[in-house]
Amino acid sequence: MELAQPAPRVSPLWDQRSLLFLILAVVAGVTVLHYLTGAHLLEYHTVYRSLYYLPVAGAAVAFGLHGGLLTALAVILLYLPHVLGMGEMIPGGMADNLLELPVFLLVGGVVGALADRERAQRRRVEELRAYIDTVVQSLPVGVATARAGGPPTPQNATARALLPTVGLALPLASLRPGYHTLETGQRPLGLHVARLRGDDPTQDERVYVLEDLTERRALEAQLRRNDRLASVGQLAAGVAHEVRNPLAIVRATAQLLAQQAGEDAAVRPYTEVLTSEADRIERLISDLLEYARPRPPVPTALDLTGFLEAAAQQVRPYALQHEVRVAIEVEQAGVLHADEAQLGQALLNLLLNAVQASEPGSVVRLVGRTGTDAAEIAVVDTGRGMAPATVERACDPFFTTRPEGTGLGLALAAAVVQEHGGELQLESALGHGSSVRIRIPQEAQHGAGADRRR
Length: 454
Prior knowledge:
Blueprint: H1 16-36, H2 42-51, H3 53-86, H4 93-138, E1 142-147, E2 153-154, H5 157-169, E3 178-183, E4 188-195, E5 205-212, H6 214-261, H7 268-292, E6 300-303, H8 304-321, E7 325-332, E8 335-338, H9 340-357, E9 363-370, E10 374-381, H10 388-393, H11 409-419, E11 423-428, E12 434-441, H12 448-453
Parallel strand pairs: 7-9
Antiparallel strand pairs: 1-2, 1-5, 3-4, 4-5, 6-8, 9-10, 10-12, 11-12
Helix pairs in contact: 1-2, 1-3, 3-4, 6-7, 8-9, 9-11
């Protein structure tokens, strides 16, 4: 991650150019004073020589090691002719003054190095502060702080979004340190409350960490639903196996009775009812086993347009009986990777449900599109629609609102889509129809859904 660079160090009164001009002016002024002051005024020359340390140290502080050394070198070059010209007349003698010249370099170097070190330390602190601020701003949870029971101050965008919701529920200052869950009416929230300065009782500063629990609650509900469906699937598989054997006996007995009765008009209707009902139970058992123990999909490359045309053609005779038209809309043609038989059966179930929910003269839309990451198919009708409570349970096995329904159509469709690593979304409103959307990843981990449901 690229860290934010600290702003250039600028004096509150002087910018870098003004400081450089001031340093050069002081060096030039002291040098001029040396050359214009007579040699007999020894105490003045002593003061002037000491004044050279001011621009050297100032340049080192303002511009670092290089600035201090360059200024010291300039001082030496300007002061050296004066030392050589005045000779033994200057205070301390020539030798002492020549030995003092390296001291200018030493002062410039030491002060400059310390200034550079302090500047680097400040830069690291600013970079760390910027990095921490970036981390806090990127957190999916809200972070806020408060002092002495005052209102919390948000530290990132998430906190700014969540704090107004919390404020409507209760004052945060009344909460004890620890974890709390809040039901605000808009969204469920989790709230961590802690002292900002540890266990110091003298400091009443707090830090609040807020998280939106909406997605977590949805995942928990999905897990509970998956557990419930897994239990239902296991029970259905066991019941199906136990029912199949006596059912076969009943069907065989009905057929034998029909053969013995011959054309007996009094017996024949009963044997036909027994046979047809046994066949219906057999189909229901097959659906139960298909739901409880699905076959892993074998995906192949399918042309989306042709796949939708085949599904629509299969359901059109049934739709004509209900005076409903099935229309295909391909927003983006391409290739769909899926098990043709399984996904075709799931799509057929969805189309049948849409036709049954539609009024005569209406249109059921079959919409498809492909993308680089996934393919989407939607079955949209303008029929009766469903209440929110019905939508919640629509994909549960054996749940149906039609007397003749088995409650396995949507459940099987959802199971097939899950086996393909995709997702099925149902949207509906009373009087406004329903929309069922299937999303199949183009590189799905097929078969992963079976492990999740068992």
